[in-house]
Amino acid sequence: MIGNNKRYTFTDIAVSIALFFVVIMIILPLLWMFSTSLRPAKESFKLPPSFFPKAPFLWGNYASVFTELPFLRNIINSSIVAGFAVSGQLLISSMAAFAITRIKFKGSEIVFIVILAGLMIPAQVTIIPLFIVMRELQLLDTLSALILPGLVYPLGVFLMRQHSLTIPMQYDEAAAIDGLNRFKTYFYIILPMMKSALLVTAVMHLLLVWNDFFRPLILINSVENMTLPLGLFQLKGMMDNGNMSIILAGVIVSIIPPLAFYGFGQKYIAMGLESGGIKG
């Protein structure tokens, strides 16, 4: 048996130590949030602070999140918005990337640059025109007002385009010889080969839509149509009573779905990010 004689340099050790501290800095706040969510209200701001609750774990804080406010309805609304927005933008982004990279036409690069320009425009700049458009369409205070803007994701087009460039054009030529038209080539040949790029784009857009607070704050008025970030905002009244535990319980509940989705597709996300940087 050949032993492992690899020698670690000072740089390797220094990088490992630095990464260890980065991981600790990321994990500790999450553990502190979870620990505080199980405390009684009087322990939320107690000094000196303790990492573990001194009293028995108060799991009732999680039940209070759903009894104090329509939190379950907020989760359902966010799931509906995220589901339709992510699904729609995956279709639109992948079709746009297919057209830009695999259908030769004059100005394709200009079209791509114009799409990328959308990344430079903050949401605050477009919120007034968006509000006016939704008002004219009579979609204010509806989930459709949040879904429609979520269908457009310039970064998704970029990632799809980068991945599409790594797929040889011979697949398109073979599909044309077999009699497949453009749509069938896209749907049956190219789209399945973009699975990793689809998943990484889905996760990134899911986090963006799921955590979006600004647009729902402007476009949604009724409690029954509020999304999860607005529901968490409604919990701020608990701070007046010193009950930070219920607020953090709500935060823990809100991060479970995106974390689960990310954990499910972690391998493909890494593959998608790697392939997205191969060609420019």
What is shown here, in short?
With 280 residues, the protein is mainly alpha-helical.
For this entry, give a set of tags.
280 residues, mainly alpha, MetI-like fold, 2 domains, 69% helix, 0% strand, cell membrane, transmembrane, sn-glycerol-3-phosphate transport system permease protein UgpE, MetI-like
Descriptive report:
By secondary structure, the chain is mainly alpha-helical. The chain folds into 2 domains: 10-57, no CATH class; 69-276, MetI-like (MetI-like fold, Orthogonal Bundle), CATH 1.10.3720. It has 14 helices and no strands. The protein has helices spanning 10-37, 60-68, 71-102, 108-117, 123-136, 144-150, 154-164, 170-177, 182-193, 195-210, 214-219, 228-234, 244-264, 266-276. The radius of gyration is 24 Å and the shape is globular.
Give the topology, please.
Elements: H1 10-37, H2 60-68, H3 71-102, H4 108-117, H5 123-136, H6 144-150, H7 154-164, H8 170-177, H9 182-193, H10 195-210, H11 214-219, H12 228-234, H13 244-264, H14 266-276
Helix pairs in contact: 1-13, 2-13, 3-6, 3-7, 3-10, 3-12, 4-7, 7-10, 7-14, 8-9, 10-14
Keywords: Cell membrane, Membrane, Transmembrane, Transmembrane helix, Transport
GO biological process, one term: transmembrane transport
Main location: membrane
Largest sheet: none
For the record, what is the CATH homologous superfamily label of the largest domain?
A: MetI-like
What is the succession of H and E elements? HHHHHHHHHHHHHH
Mean pLDDT: 86
> How helix-rich are the residues, as a percent range?
55-70%
Distance between the termini: 44 Å
As a percent range, the share of strand residues is: under 5%
Rounded to an integer in angstroms, the radius of gyration calculated over CA atoms is 24 Å
Q: Which runs of at least 5 residues are low in confidence (pLDDT < 50)?
A: none
Q: From the helix content, strand content and strand pairing, which structural class follows?
A: mainly alpha
Reading off the top of the CATH hierarchy, the class of the largest domain is best stated as: Mainly Alpha
Strand tally, please? 0
Q: Overall 3D geometry?
A: globular
The CATH topology of the largest domain comes to MetI-like fold
Number of helices: 14
